[in-house]
Amino acid sequence: MTSTNGSFGMERRSRGRPSRLPFAALIAAFFFLQLGSPSALAHQSPVGCTGSGLGIDLFAHVGDVHVGDTIRYSVRLFNSPFPACDATEIGAEIVTPDGITNSITALLRRNALPPGESDFYTNVVSYVVRAQDIRSDGTVRATALDAGTIHQNDTNSKGGGNQGVNTEVNLPCLQISALCIGGIGENGAIRFTGTVTNCGNSTLAGVTVTNLVDSGSFMVLMPTKLAIGQSVDFSGSWVPANPCGPNVALLTVRGTDEFTATPHTVTNFTTIACQNTLTPGIKVTKSCPVQAAAPGQMLVFSGTVANTGNVTLTNIVVLNDWPAPNTPVFLLASLAPGGVAPFTGQYAATTNCSMSDTLTANAQGLCGGAVTSSATATCPIFTRPALLVTQTCPVNAVLQGGILTYSGKVLNIGNTTLSNIVVVNDKPAAGTVIFTLASLAPGASAVFTGSYQVPSNCCVVSSTLLASGRGCNGALVAATC
Fold first, then answer.
1. Which of 8, 51, 406, 472 could bridge 353 with an S-S bond, Cβ 3.0-4.6 Å?
2. Residue 38 has pLDDT above 80, yes or no
3. Secondary structure, 3-state, the chain
4. 2-170 domain in CATH 1.10.287?
5. Would you state the CATH architecture of domain 174-274?
């Protein structure tokens, strides 16, 4: 909006009603009509004139502007109708809002105005609006002045006028603030909320907020209108392309003060950075074969490795502590959250009753962090415990009543180690222990000797050996000879 000060000291708006003659001029005209023309003076021109009617009007080509816009000023130089006197030697100038005086005298088509005549000069001075020139009422002010020689009596006088024009300065302004909350897991959504405020001095239309993230732009606030001082909330979310973060989004607000003479678009922005909560996890399992393997056969076991966390695992390695520490069993490049990968492994079964081994799974989280898990299983071995005992008489016959010394052998003919081997004879008395051995491996044998006294009334003697041992889980095996 533009306002002006009249050349006679009256204030008016440039887009309001036309200016009127000042009150003092009306009174003078009244008395002139009532009393008639005074006596003519030698230099009075025209005869009977009573004073100065010289004045100036100032106009801006727009009613409101923005900082950086150009205002073009026009003026109208006029001399009021009779009883105003002739004005000659007229000069004029415009003082722009930056305080610079711009003379326009050289542009005048004539420098004399008889009463009742005027001249209009278009776009004689331009001014670029500066923020430092804005006054406390939100306007920039220019002033136009003219002066000339007034021929009203024997001694000429000086007369003229001044007029100011106020042009409103639009200061569109948008403020934006936002905060975000990270999601859970690499596929979690980051959520954000924010507020936009019209901090300027004009209504804004078409206000939008866009989110620029991961090379994509997404509108989170549809076009809306904001009055001066009004605020509006917005919210949105996105799933980050890079879960390792932190993830940065640029929120940009735009709006236009389109209800002005020269609409301008104003922008502002804020950035938010969030990171999802990532927890890597792993679990390994081991299962024995349904059918037990016999010693020397391959014991084939199965297992699984599972991603129990919320972020992808990489470089998964499953190792076994048998048949040697850190024996590789399974390798996998990556495993998504919730994923399960099966695997199998094998080794030769021993002659023990069972095999116990431990699997260890190691991995790295996609965004860092090492994880590990272990599983132990004891697998039974299919065993056939068996024992053989033999007895050999001495080479030379023994006399009646003499001592008979015999030899024997105990042999493990099964496929598993035997323990607590005991050999007994029924001579010289039932259950006579003649040999013990702590353990005996499959295929191994042990020799022993024993003796007893031959009766004095027989030609032939016999004895029975009983060998016994313990197999897997304490199972008893025995053999006689």
1. 472
2. no
3. CEEEECCCCCEEECCCCCCCCCHHHHHHHHHHHHHCCCCCCCCCCCCCCCECCEEEEEEECCCEEECCCEEEEEEEEEECCCCECCEEEEEEEEECCCCCEEECHHHCCCCCECCCCEEEEEEEEEEECCHHHCCCCCEEEEEEEEEEEECCCCCCEEEEEEEEEEEEEECCCEEEEEEEECCECCCCCEEEEEEEEECCCCCEEEEEEEEEECCEEEEEEEEEEECCCCEEEEEEEECCCCCCCCEEEEEEEEEECCCCCCCCEEEEEEEEEECCECCCCEEEEEECCCCCECCCCEEEEEEEEEECCCCCEEEEEEEECCCCCCEEEEEEEEECCCCEEEEEEEEECCCCCEEEEEEEEEEEECCCCEEEEEEEEEEEECCCCCEEEEEECCCCCCCCCCEEEEEEEEEECCCCCEEEEEEEECCCCCCEEEEEEEEECCCCEEEEEEEEECCCCCCCCCCCEEEEEECHHHCEEEEEC
4. no
5. Sandwich (2.60)
CA triplet 88, 92, 98: central angle to 5 degrees? 170
Give the Cα separation of 226 and 444 in Å (integer): 99
Radius of gyration of the chain (CA): 58
Hey, what are 61's tokens? 């080509």
Tokens 């003659």: give the residue.
21
pLDDT category of residue 283 using cuts at 50, 70 and 90: very high
pLDDT tens digits for range 175-217: 999 999 999 999 999 999 999 999 999 999 999 999 999 989 9
**CATH second-level architecture of 282-380?**
Sandwich (2.60)
Cβ(402)–Cβ(312) under 8 Å?
Answer: no
Instruction: Give the residue among 106, 69, 1, 468 at the shortest CA–CA distance from 263.
Output: 69
Q: How far apart are CA 287 and CA 298, in angstroms?
A: 15
Tell me the pLDDT tens digit for each residue of 440-475: 999 999 999 999 998 888 788 889 999 999 988 888
- CATH fold match for the domains 2-170 and 387-480: yes
| Predicted confidence (pLDDT) at residue 246 exceeds the cutoff of 80 | yes
Give the whole-number percent of the chain exceeding pLDDT 70: 91
**pLDDT, averaged across the chain:** 90
pLDDT digits (tens, 9 = 90+) for 403-431: 999 999 999 998 889 999 999 999 999 99
User: Both tokens of residue 74?
Assistant: 């026009």
CATH topology of domain 387-480: Immunoglobulin-like (2.60.40)
